[in-house]
Amino acid sequence: MPRPATSDRLDDDDYPAYTMGRAAEMIGTTPAFLRALGEAQLITPLRSPGGHRRYSRYQLRIAARARDLVDQGTPIEAACRIIILEDQLEEARRINEQLRAAANPPPQQQ
């Protein structure tokens, strides 16, 4: 299978493009905070061939949301749980909308 072009990978929200140091810098936190999010199982960074943590843009958005909650005084464990529940609620809403659309198809024009 051919490798995707570099620009395709960088456009991919799930591509692990950022090192821990760069990721921490981008969201205004410390590497220790990112490690704590991993320990809380909120995000699981991929590992480079050398074993270094690598983060995607999607993971950085989640980490930034956690940082915002912690900055507001929420304990990190609670912040992680809130984000997980928000994600589950969004998924349930999406599924509910799909089921409603399938149950009530638009009338056909004649």
UniProtKB/TrEMBL annotation:
<protein>
    <submittedName>
        <fullName>MerR-like DNA binding protein</fullName>
    </submittedName>
</protein>
<feature type="domain" description="HTH merR-type">
    <location>
        <begin position="17"/>
        <end position="85"/>
    </location>
</feature>
<dbReference type="InterPro" id="IPR009061">
    <property type="entry name" value="DNA-bd_dom_put_sf"/>
</dbReference>
<dbReference type="Pfam" id="PF13411">
    <property type="entry name" value="MerR_1"/>
</dbReference>
<dbReference type="GO" id="GO:0006355">
    <property type="term" value="P:regulation of DNA-templated transcription"/>
</dbReference>
<dbReference type="InterPro" id="IPR000551">
    <property type="entry name" value="MerR-type_HTH_dom"/>
</dbReference>
<dbReference type="GO" id="GO:0003677">
    <property type="term" value="F:DNA binding"/>
</dbReference>
